[in-house]
Amino acid sequence: MTSEQVADRTAGDAAVQDGSGSGKEASEGYERGLGNRQIQMIAIGGAIGTGLFLGAGRAISKAGPSLILAYAIAGLVIFFIMRALGELLMYRPVSGSFSDYAREFLGPFWGYVTGWTYWLFWVVTGIVEVTAAASYVQYWNKSIPQWVSALVFTVILYFVNLISVKLFGELEFWFSMVKVTAIIGMILIGVGVLTIGFSDAGDTATVTNLWNDGGFFPHGVGDTLMTLQIVMFAFLAVELVGVTAGEAKDPEKTLPKAINTVPWRIAVFYIGALIIILAVVPWGEFMPGVSPFVAAFQKIGLPAGAGIVNFVVLTAALSSCNSGMYSTGRMLRDLSLNGQGPKFFGQLTKKGLPLRGTTFSAALMLVGVVINYEWPGKAFDYVVSFATISGMWAWIVILVAQLRYRRKADRGELPQSAFRAPGAPWTSLFALAFIFMVIVMMGIDKDARVSLYCAPVWAAIMWVSYLVLKKRNPQAFERKDYSLTK
């Protein structure tokens, strides 16, 4: 029995629940319209958002140059997570992704919790991103209320998601291309300032800025550790590649290629960019809430460049929010097909789009408009920590599911993946330990602690709703047997 046969059997089970027939295409129903070029740029763009462009300003003010090391270590952990996800995807590429693997390797209850938690993560992240986008607008016109910009962006992105998945991929490709081009351009200009010395910044720009002002750890190692939640938030959404598995044209080739680009993406777009920025602008000049990219161009004396970068980070935030609307609709449909969500969300449009789930999610994202109206100055800080803890849940599930899958595959109960994670299980265990350390740091940080207060409330909601749904539909929570020895 091959991996493809296992996937077909799983799809057939979902099709029976859906009442749509049998076979993979009947249960999925999506258009495989995302090509290699689009998948690659979605993978790159998913990791470049407000966490880097806006959150990094706050992190630099707290950790100084040592933030570079924090991004490097966290980036290594992210690579371990993505390789674990890649192993699962090549075993069975499905649109349900994390929640589907949780059902198989942890149990139906955990699949239910994972699906709804990941959906919640993207709703909250959408609020974060639209909040950031609204703040960027004020760079040009402070008279426009932040909540007005948030409302307009939410409505526009909702209508963008009414198009075909192929056009969605094309739009994301160009969104990502803008971000990538801008970062590379900023790096090249920064290198020019450091080597040739043009502009006023050339008089003070030097790599010694990385350690001259209070050392590499100006506030100590402890403060650097406290920025890890901001760093991890910057990497949230790299796992979005897993959600595209059901709509990728050639997942066996495109997904591993996208995952293997993670190391150089992090090296260039995060570590490389931060090294250049902190060499050009002394870390003490950065302020929370101000994009370090914009600050760097202002220091160089290119006001037009700062405006361009502000436009780029605006598109970065909108791109991430757009991806959020994309994933929430698919996650709600996966829950619906498995009997763990309202049947209402199971229907697709003629273009293969989960319109109902997307509409419901976009409506909840309008909460971001209220937040921007009531607390415009604190909106980003209020929601970023909760987005981090809910997003990291998906990473924990990926790692635990991969560990259990590897044990079963090694025993011959399941087929081996064609894309095995190197160094597993030790790399997966290290990544899990790192994530739990970040959660502990969030508990120590009084500003981030609110997310940990919310977590038990969400867990209680999940448990009570699980008991109600299981009583109404016991079959939806029956454990399936995927083993080869069945």
UniProtKB/TrEMBL annotation:
InterPro entries: AA-permease/SLC12A_dom (IPR004841), Amino_acid_permease_CS (IPR004840). It is a multi-pass membrane protein. Residues 1-11 have a biased composition (Basic and acidic residues). Residues 1-29 are annotated as: Disordered. The keyword Membrane applies. The chain crosses the membrane at residues 41-60, 66-85, 105-127, 147-168, 180-199, 226-245, 266-284, 304-326, 353-373, 379-403, 424-444, 450-469. The keyword Transmembrane applies. It is found in: Cell membrane. Residues 39-474 form the Amino acid permease/ SLC12A domain. One of its GO terms (biological process) is transmembrane transport. It comes from the Bacteria. Keywords: Amino-acid transport, Cell membrane, Membrane, Transmembrane, Transmembrane helix, Transport. One of its GO terms (cellular component) is plasma membrane. It holds the Pfam family AA_permease. Belongs to the amino acid-polyamine-organocation (APC) superfamily. Amino acid transporter (AAT) (TC 2.A.3.1) family. This is Proline-specific permease ProY.
